[in-house]
Structures are given as C-alpha cells and as structure tokens.
Protein: Mycothione reductase
Organism: Nocardioides hwasunensis
Amino acid sequence: MTTQHYDLVIVGAGSGNIIVDEQFDDFRVALVERGPFGGTCLNRGCIPSKMFILPADVATTARRGDALGVPTRVGPAEWRTIRDRVIAKVDADAADGLEGREEADNIDVYQGTASFTGPRTLAIDVDGKITEVTGDQVVLATGTRPVVPDIPGLEEAGFETSDTIMRLEAFPARLGVVGGGYVGSELAHVFSSYGAEVVQVEGGDSLLNDQDADVAAHFTSAVERRWDVRLGTELEKVSGGGGDPITLHLADGEEAEVDVLLLAIGRQPNSDLLDLERAGVDVDDSGRIVVDEHQRTSADGVWSLGDASSDQPLKHVANQDARVVQHNLLRALRHTGDGPSDLAVSDHRAVPQAVFTHPQIARVGLTEAEARDEHGDDVVVARHDVADVAYGWALAGDLDDDAEANGFVKLVGRRSTGRLVGAHLVAPMASVLVQPLVMAMAHDVPVAGLARSTYWIHPALTEVVENALIALESALESAPDDA
Ligand SMILES: Cc1cc2nc3c(=O)[nH]c(=O)nc-3n(C[C@H](O)[C@H](O)[C@H](O)COP(=O)(O)OP(=O)(O)OC[C@H]3O[C@@H](n4cnc5c(N)ncnc54)[C@H](O)[C@@H]3O)c2cc1C
Ligand SMILES: NC(=O)c1ccc[n+]([C@@H]2O[C@H](COP(=O)([O-])OP(=O)(O)OC[C@H]3O[C@@H](n4cnc5c(N)ncnc54)[C@H](O)[C@@H]3O)[C@@H](O)[C@H]2O)c1
C-alpha cells in the first residue's frame, strides 16, 4: 500500500469542494468523494428538488384558473420531460465539477470512500484498491444520508428515498410518502401536483411539526384538501411490491395501496463510515461530529462543516461553515495569525429556512412556543394576513381557499429588548419575503421604527411584512395586559 502526504485532505466534495480556490495553489490537496461531485444539494437535494417544484407550482397555479375566471385545463405532467431537464442539468454540473478539480495541478481527486486508520491518516478505498493518505490538515465535510428503518417487508417490496426518486423511470399513479417533514412534504407537493394520488403518513400530530404551530396547522389543513394525510401513525409493515402494488400496513390498523413508496423520515450522519475513534474525533449521540465555534473537531488539525457537524442541515449553513473553515485553514497552513483570536467564528444565529411547498413557508428564529419556553411573559406576538393587504386582494383569497392567498406573517418579539426573536411566513414567495426580517434579526435592529424607516412598494406583497411589523411594534409598546 502506498502512502501519499498532503498539506490538506478534504473528505466530501459537496460543500467541502468550495474551500479550495487560488489561495490554495501552493498547497497539495487531496479531495476524496465517494459519490458524484457537488454532494447532496446539487445531485439529490436543493437543486433538483426545486427544479421539480417549479413545474409543480405552475400546475398548482393553473388549477386556480377557474376560480379566477380563466378556465384552465391541466393535463397529467410529462414526467420524463421534467425529469430529463433536471437530471441533464445536475449531471452536467457534477461532471464539470469533477473535471475542473482533476485538471488542477495541485489537487489529487480520489473517487472512493475514506476512513481513518490513525490521527490525520486515512485509507481511501477506490474500487477495492486502498491508498493511504496523511494530511497536515484534514476537513470532514461528509454530510448525511436518508434514514432507512428496519420494517418487515420493506426490502422485499422495494422503496425510494430522496436519493433515488428523482430518477424514476415511470411516473407512479399512486405514491406513498412516509414522513411529514421537509423532504416528504416538498415531494408530496411535487407528485400530487403532477397528478399522482398521494398518501402521506406522519408519526406526529401535524405535518412540518418543527415549524410554528400556526404554520404547521395551516399547512396540514391546506394539503389535506389535496392529498390523503394520515397523522399520528407509523408504517409497521409492507407487503406486495416487486412490480405489484405495495400495501402499507399502518400502526393504527389502516392500510393504503400505492405503486411507489418514498421514505422521508429524516437523515443520519455519514460519520459512521469514517472510523473516527481512530483519529480522536468525537461525535455526539446522534453521530454528528462535535465542533467548536471555529469548526475545529476534538482532534488537532481536523475540521468539520455542514450537515456532518451542524444541527441546522441547510446548504446556506454549510456554505457559511465552509467559508469559516477556509479562513482558518489558510492561517493553519501558512502558520500565520495570533492563535484562536485570529480564527473566524461561525455565526449560527438568525439562520432562515424555507419549505418550497404550496403554500410556501419561511422561517427565521424561534417559534412562539420556543420563545415562550425561553422568555415566558416577555414574549409578544403579532400577525397580519395576506388577504388584508392590497396584493392579497389580487391573489384573491376571497374567491377560493388557496392556502397562499390565505396565508399570513406571524412575528414573535420580546418586550424587554424590543427585538424580533422569530418570524413565520405562509405566503407566495415566503422564502423571499422573509429576508428583511432575517436582516433585522442578524443586525439586531429594534422593531420600533423598522417598518417606517423605509418605503415598502405599494401594492407589493411586502406590505404584509410591513403591516406585521407595525402590529408587533404597537403590541410591544402596549401595556402587558393589553397585548
Ligand atoms: C431532497 C432534499 C432537498 C433539500 N433542499 C434544500 C433546500 O432547498 N435548501 C437548503 O438549504 N437545503 C436543502 N437540503 C439540505 C442540503 O442539501 C444540505 O444541507 C447540504 O447539501 C449539505 O451539504 P454538505 O456539504 O454538508 O453535505 P453533502 O452535500 O451531503 O456532501 C457530503 C459528501 O461527502 C461524501 N462522503 C460522505 N462520506 C464519505 C467518505 N467516507 N468518503 C468519501 N466521501 C464521502 C458524500 O458522498 C457527499 O457527496 C435538501 C436536502 C434534501 C435531501
Ligand atoms: N427546503 C429545505 O430547506 C429542505 C428541503 C428538504 C430537506 N431539507 C433538510 O433535510 C433535512 C431532512 O429532511 P427530512 O424531511 O428527511 O427529515 P425531517 O426530520 O424534517 O422530517 C422527518 C419527519 O418524519 C417523521 N417520522 C419519523 N419517523 C417516522 C415514522 N417511522 N413514521 C412516520 N413518520 C415518521 C418525523 O416526525 C418528521 O416529521 C431537514 O431537516 C432539512 O434540514 C431542507
């Protein structure tokens, strides 16, 4: 077995791949990736899912045509056309990413699986051929993978996860989705909008149950009008499949027959592939790599970032972590800086997130329940409905029961600080509307004056955010008993 030494070894070419730029030209880098370049986000996550969601949103909007006086006929979606557009884009980007790295003089790409054999020493298995590499610095950007539970009949029946469902050959007439979180809800929206009959099974008492309770309730009742939602129950057994219909046997005694089964019950870290104990790298009880505020692990010279180490598994968090690691690595490799005081720090406050369903949902900060747990009576809540601003009238929540036209902005503040601690939006383009609220929280701007300190375009939908801020300002100013 040969051993190669590098200045830097990076395991995982998702967000790990963005670390190395021209600042690293003088360093020898090993980049190890067991799957396609670009990782989860590019190949089977954010990018393809949002490319599938756009046509789903078009179909959902078109179906409202009748209520708005534009008779519209929506045929079944052309799965292969949609799928091929998505897959062509992501596969080309992944191939370009790999090619760019292979052409770089200072980078050796290993297309295999790495695991530690000792401190900062890894064995890389490329199709059974093992190479040992050592690194002065090592970055673990190894992400997560879908959880697959041990359920009787599952393996025999066959199932999909978010890793595989986007490449299905044939569109299923009936889809079973187990899990009511982000992945399950976004993909239920996609397949339902394209014309599949969807049944979604969630163990909790609402879908999207880590959102604010008002948002989760609004979303759950909205999609119950579109597909079959089974709450408070779990998949206990699976029968059939292997080309025949699949029967889902649920814990409450109910059954559902589907053609394809999607498991979306969460994700687990890939840290178990790394033999981390041999390198002195600690993980927590859920297998997440433990890092400090500089993204340093418990082992000297070993860093981690993104889903591998984060409790907020989102791509914008992974990107930000990667920028922190890049800054800190360059100091370590160049032996410059004044020690820890010169290291960049990850700021994981005010991280926004969005669920790209219909209705679209966005959030930053604490839910009302989390805020009340943390801050008790100091918490003040205000809300403004989409239907109560001018653009909401155009969206016509009065004409049908569209879940976005009947959406809202809910703000959570603290009386003692006069600051926003949480914002929850259900609205068209909620992922865009939330941004001024993210800025306010990140820059610690007082709520007082925030709405009136700038113009808000009339009659744009941003007026719903403006009005929610005005309502929160007035609630913060009122006596506790009047709020
Ligand atoms: C369906 C879906 C939709 C999503 N949509 C969004 C969204 O809209 N917005 C958002 O912010 N986030 C979204 N996410 C989450 C987002 O994809 C992740 O937060 C992000 O990709 C994490 O990046 P990462 O670099 O930490 O990990 P990854 O992108 O998972 O990269 C880890 C890489 O490490 C490789 N690897 C692992 N172990 C080893 C090993 N031992 N040896 C070699 N290679 C290894 C893996 O093959 C992988 O390529 C979505 C996720 C899913 C599943
Ligand atoms: N738009 C986005 O930003 C986006 C989109 C997709 C994924 N993601 C990321 O990926 C992560 C994983 O998403 P996910 O949806 O796989 O996980 P999740 O944790 O968000 O949701 C899993 C859901 O499955 C339920 N569940 C668990 N076990 C079950 C069982 N046996 N039977 C029935 N229900 C069960 C849970 O109660 C939960 O509601 C998210 O936390 C998010 O960070 C983000």
